[in-house]
Amino acid sequence: MRRRIGASVRAEAARRGLRQLDIGLRLGVSQSAVSGRFVGRLPFSAEELVELADWFDVPVARFFEPVPGARPGGEVG
Questions:
Q1: Which positions fall inside the HTH cro/C1-type domain (predicted)?
Q2: Contacts of 2 (CB under 8 A, 6+ apart)
Q3: Domains plus CATH for the chain?
Q4: What residues contact residue 60 under an 8 Å CB cut-off, 6+ apart?
Q5: CA angle 25, 28, 31 (to 5 degrees)
Q6: DSSP-assigned letters across all residues of 6-38
Q7: pLDDT tens for residues 52-63?
């Protein structure tokens, strides 16, 4: 599930042209912490997902949906 959420957040960020650094600044974490979340090594907190959903103007549930083109487990292409 962590990988699916990370892949979904990464895809939404990419659609907006945002970098890991941008996400980290918004969440108050390092770029490497964002990288860990994107690959599923670290979990996003519920608060972080709510913050990102508000910023991206999407429902939090979007982060739990499979990413088109993702392999099983959430990895993208």
A1: 9-63
A2: 37, 40, 41, 42, 43, 44, 74
A3: 2-63 (1.10.260.40)
A4: 49, 50, 53
A5: 60
A6: HHHHHHHHHHTT--HHHHHHHHT--HHHHHHHH
A7: 999 999 999 999
Q: What is the dihedral of CA 45, 47, 50, 52, to 10 degrees?
A: -70
Q: Can you say how many angstroms the Cα of residue 42 is from the centroid of all Cα atoms in its chain?
A: 11
Report helix, strand or coil for 70: strand
Residues ≥6 apart with Cβ < 8 Å to 37? 2, 6, 9, 43, 44, 48
Q: Which residue has 């690959």 as its token pair?
A: 39
d(CA 67, CA 76) in angstroms, rounded, equals 8
Residue range 26-34: average pLDDT? 98
Contact between 31 and 21 (Cβ < 8 Å): yes
User: Model-level pTM?
Assistant: 0.85
